[in-house]
Specification:
Blueprint (H helix, E strand, L loop, with lengths): L14 E14 L2 E14 L3 E5 L6 H8 L7 E6 L2 E2 L5 H11 E4 L11 H9 L8 H7 L15 H14 L4 E5 L7 H18 L2 E5 L11 E6 L2 E7 L12
Bound molecules: adenosine-5'-triphosphate.
The site of adenosine-5'-triphosphate has 13 residues, from strand 1, strand 2 and helix 1.
Length: 246
């Protein structure tokens, strides 16, 4: 199998993801939508990367492809030295289960299970999980582990979703508008848990947001426009989530 491209934009570390010429065309009846029009990128291991851009510019499409939920129409994608675009469905699912944690705008917790039971759903089937109590402690909810989702605020529910995503110790966390439904104060607390997972566990963090203020907590920002990465911005300093101007 051919290795990943060698373009070294990563300061000597092998990239987590390398995408080359990725295109995604959705065909619905007579209509074709070019959601990605040929994107090339490296995503560095352990970085915080924000995807920013107008609605419909292709951010979620890229996130879903990187997370193995969808496949590109054209192009190649590697995770480290594995070509994801060459895997069959079973192997792509295995990659996703092992390496990827997802966090969405709506928390998708099971209402009839406590916070800890929601986390345990994942740790029971993961290969190398952390203790659910430890995951809840990392997001600041050790005291609330016997609470049901309805007994938790929106921000707390999202932190349970973060605990669930990090408990299987994935290499990568993918977040699609994780603070989209939250006010600034609770949003900051959720971002703090993601920042902590990145710093303490070394998890690569990729985050879609419409809030340009959040981009300042990233190492880099991919600016999307019309299915392309129009510009890559590198922050000289990552600010703490508490310093974000919302
Ligand atoms: N399953 C699908 N079938 C058809 N078209 C789709 C599908 N998913 C996305 N699209 C289209 O692809 C384009 C890119 O969508 P995508 O969701 O990636 O954008 P986005 O930048 O994440 O937008 P938003 O910020 O609104 O979530 C849009 O025009 C969208 O309507």
């Amino acid at each position: 199998m051919q290795g990943p491209p060698q373009a070294d934009l990563t300061g000597g570390h092998p990239p987590a993801f390398t995408g080359r010429g990725l295109r995604k065309t959705y065909i619905t009846g007579e209509t074709q939508v070019h959601a990605l029009r040929g994107v090339d990128f490296e995503i560095r291991k352990g970085e915080v990367l924000v995807l920013l851009g107008p609605s419909g510019s292709g951010k979620s499409t890229l996130l879903n492809i990187v997370g193995g939920l969808d496949r590109p129409t054209e192009g190649t994608l590697h995770y480290e030295d594995v070509e994801l675009t060459a895997l069959d469905d079973a192997d792509l699912t295995r990659f996703r289960r092992r390496q990827i944690g997802f966090i969405f705008q709506f928390y998708n917790l099971i209402p009839s299970l406590t916070a800890e039971e929601n986390v345990r759903l994942v740790t029971d089937i993961a290969e190398n999980p952390m203790d659910p109590a430890r995951a809840l402690e990392l997001v600041g909810l050790a005291e609330r582990r016997a609470h049901f989702p309805a007994q938790l605020s929106g921000g707390e529910q999202q932190r349970v979703a973060v605990a669930r995503a990090i408990a299987k110790q994935p290499g990568v966390l993918l977040c699609d508008e994780p603070t989209g439904a939250l006010d600034s104060e609770t949003g900051v607390r959720v971002l703090e848990t993601l920042d902590r997972a990145n710093r303490e566990l070394g998890t690569t963090l990729i985050l879609i947001t419409h809030n340009a203020g959040i981009a300042a907590m990233a190492d880099r920002v991919f600016h999307f426009l019309d299915g392309q990465i129009a510009r890559i911005e590198e922050n000289s300093r990552r600010i703490a989530p508490s310093e974000i101007s919302w």
